[in-house]
């Protein structure tokens, strides 16, 4: 990964004002990009008078490339499977669960409150409330922190949070003109009124409206933003491909070694049982280099090989107050500690949420990067990850955009996404947050660490970060 650790001072032409200024003060991008943090003595983040909230356990069904084994299912089928997997893993009595909250992004109209439908399908009591949240790629993060609020306030002691996304069957709407006509037909009272409406239909009425992973406020596809961000931070195509290859290689190693224990098997109706993620595909830099630009053509650097792919999947976690968990005989996996949400300009800083959130969270918790043993960052694009790391390593960026006197630095590479990430494991928009938190907890146990930091970007220029603390065994 030689070129990942070194970069030149040349920056591609850009029309973005802030990044033009940034390019004039380009980062020192030597081997210090992934410098090793010096260990420090640590203290617990428990606070007097504040309830300890714990992650008892978490599961996910295999994350699959859209259009594969889950293609004939619906979102609530996947969410139900994750809930059943959680019940089987934890043996928690269904009646003990006081609330269920799920995150999702592209909603199926027939099951708008997918949390409720999945809960009923999984056999939870019809007296167990459930609701659905949506916050783009941090939807299940929002589900978890919503549950955190219920628990911390003392309103409840047992909450299930999760997320789901079904990209194999996304809603495709008629055009607005056709929708308006069809609704008019349902209100028409006479044959003449109906014929009048029908006579106004034109061929263009039949053109469908396809969903797009684009910002409503800017009308820009996220991949375009990633390409511009990579150019602004002088991140080469080779660096992005190298990082993506690292993600796939580490994910394959973790899968082969049986480290991805959050994955539960799912018997797909009418098909075989799915037991593992199917998007992990280590390749070679030569093969990756042959792919053409996906968004800014022909000179863009973001390709299918260094981007996360459209994914179907669902995840679920069991959260409790520490007192309740111990009273029920559970040994929690981790404490869920401080968390923050951030938001920036969705045009020029759409994907920089992790940099902002990490800085804000560490300051809030009174920690530094050296205190963190495990990092789990959402990988939307390889260029997005590397841009965030460069932003974190820039005094100029910290002073001009974060309101800080100096940079926070970058995570040591040996602590960063060691079991792969969204580039390789997949990214069901609404479900990734739970995977990040559970993976952080599992890695803390495996690697003997105390603190894990989870961070993710999201559409709308938003971001989230949370600290996970290992639960003493």
TrEMBL record:
InterPro entries (UniProt xref): Thiolase, Thiolase-like, Thiolase_acyl_enz_int_AS, Thiolase_AS, Thiolase_C, Thiolase_CS, Thiolase_N
Gene Ontology, cellular component aspect: endoplasmic reticulum; mitochondrial fatty acid beta-oxidation multienzyme complex; mitochondrial inner membrane; mitochondrial outer membrane
Give GO terms for biological process: fatty acid beta-oxidation
User: Which compartments is it annotated to reside in?
Assistant: Endoplasmic reticulum; Mitochondrion inner membrane; Mitochondrion outer membrane
| Pathway note | Lipid metabolism; fatty acid beta-oxidation
Q: What is its EC number?
A: 2.3.1.155, 2.3.1.16
**Principal EC category:** transferase
Enumerate the spans annotated as Thiolase C-terminal domain.
Answer: 330-469
Catalytic activity entry: hexanoyl-CoA + acetyl-CoA = 3-oxooctanoyl-CoA + CoA; decanoyl-CoA + acetyl-CoA = 3-oxododecanoyl-CoA + CoA; octanoyl-CoA + acetyl-CoA = 3-oxodecanoyl-CoA + CoA; dodecanoyl-CoA + acetyl-CoA = 3-oxotetradecanoyl-CoA + CoA
Keywords assigned: Acetylation, Acyltransferase, Endoplasmic reticulum, Fatty acid metabolism, Lipid metabolism, Membrane, Mitochondrion, Mitochondrion inner membrane, Mitochondrion outer membrane, Transferase, Transit peptide
**Statement: the UniProt record of this protein carries the keyword Phosphoprotein:** no
Q: Which domain of life is it from?
A: Eukaryota
What are the residue boundaries of the Thiolase N-terminal domain, all occurrences included?
53-323
Q: Name one GO molecular function term.
A: acetyl-CoA C-acyltransferase activity
Q: Does the keyword Metal-binding apply?
A: no
Q: What is its main location?
A: endoplasmic reticulum
Its biological purpose: Mitochondrial trifunctional enzyme catalyzes the last three of the four reactions of the mitochondrial beta-oxidation pathway. The mitochondrial beta-oxidation pathway is the major energy-producing process in tissues and is performed through four consecutive reactions breaking down fatty acids into acetyl-CoA. Among the enzymes involved in this pathway, the trifunctional enzyme exhibits specificity for long-chain fatty acids.
Task: Quote the NCBIfam families the UniProt record gives.
Answer: AcCoA-C-Actrans
Similarity remark: Belongs to the thiolase-like superfamily. Thiolase family.
Q: How does it assemble?
A: Heterotetramer of 2 alpha/HADHA and 2 beta/HADHB subunits; forms the mitochondrial trifunctional enzyme. Also purified as higher order heterooligomers including a 4 alpha/HADHA and 4 beta/HADHB heterooligomer which physiological significance remains unclear. The mitochondrial trifunctional enzyme interacts with MTLN. Interacts with RSAD2/viperin.
The protein in question is named Trifunctional enzyme subunit beta, mitochondrial
Q: Which organism is it from?
A: Python bivittatus
């Amino acid at each position: 990964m030689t070129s990942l650790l070194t970069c030149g001072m040349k920056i591609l032409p850009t029309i973005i004002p802030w990044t033009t200024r940034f390019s004039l003060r380009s980062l020192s991008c030597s081997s210090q990009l992934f410098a090793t943090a010096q260990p420090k003595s640590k203290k617990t983040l428990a606070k007097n008078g504040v309830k300890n909230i714990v992650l008892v356990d978490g599961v996910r069904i295999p994350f699959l490339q859209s259009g594969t084994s889950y293609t004939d299912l619906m979102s609530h089928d996947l969410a139900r499977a994750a809930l059943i997997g959680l019940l089987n893993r934890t043996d928690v009595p269904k009646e003990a669960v006081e609330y269920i909250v799920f995150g999702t992004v592209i909603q199926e109209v027939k099951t708008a409150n997918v949390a409720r439908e999945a809960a009923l399908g999984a056999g939870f009591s019809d007296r167990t409330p459930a609701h659905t949240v949506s916050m783009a790629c941090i939807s299940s993060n929002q589900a978890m922190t919503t549950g955190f609020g219920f628990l911390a306030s003392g309103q409840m002691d047992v909450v299930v949070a999760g997320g789901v996304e079904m990209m194999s069957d996304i809603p495709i709407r008629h055009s607005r003109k056709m929708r308006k006509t069809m609704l008019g037909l349902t209100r028409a009272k006479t044959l003449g009124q109906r014929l009048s409406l029908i006579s106004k239909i034109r061929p263009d009425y039949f053109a469908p409206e396809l969903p797009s992973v684009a910002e409503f406020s800017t009308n820009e596809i996220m991949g375009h933003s990633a390409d511009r961000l990579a150019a602004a931070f002088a991140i080469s195509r080779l660096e992005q491909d190298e990082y993506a290859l690292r993600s796939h290689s580490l994910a394959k190693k973790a899968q082969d070694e049986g480290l991805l224990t959050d994955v539960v098997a799912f018997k797909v109706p009418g098909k075989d049982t799915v037991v593992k993620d199917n998007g992990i595909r280590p390749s070679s830099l030569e093969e990756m280099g042959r792919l053409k630009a996906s968004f800014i053509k022909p000179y863009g650097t973001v390709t299918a090989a260094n981007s996360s792919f459209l994914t179907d999947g669902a995840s679920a976690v069991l959260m409790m107050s520490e007192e309740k968990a111990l009273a029920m005989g559970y040994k929690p996996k981790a404490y869920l500690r401080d968390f923050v949400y951030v938001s920036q300009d969705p045009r020029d800083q759409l994907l920089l949420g992790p940099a902002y959130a990490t800085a804000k969270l560490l300051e809030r918790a009174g920690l530094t990067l050296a205190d963190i043993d495990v990092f789990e960052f959402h990988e939307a694009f390889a260029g997005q990850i590397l841009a965030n790391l460069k932003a974190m390593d820039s005094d100029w960026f910290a002073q001009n955009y974060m309101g800080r006197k100096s940079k926070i630095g970058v995570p040591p590479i040996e602590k960063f996404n060691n079991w792969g990430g969204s580039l390789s494991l997949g990214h069901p928009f609404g479900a990734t947050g739970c995977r990040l938190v559970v993976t952080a907890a599992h890695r803390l146990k495996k690697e003997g660490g105390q603190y894990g930091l989870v961070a993710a970007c999201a559409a709308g220029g938003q971001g989230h970060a949370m600290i996970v603390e290992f639960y003493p065994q």
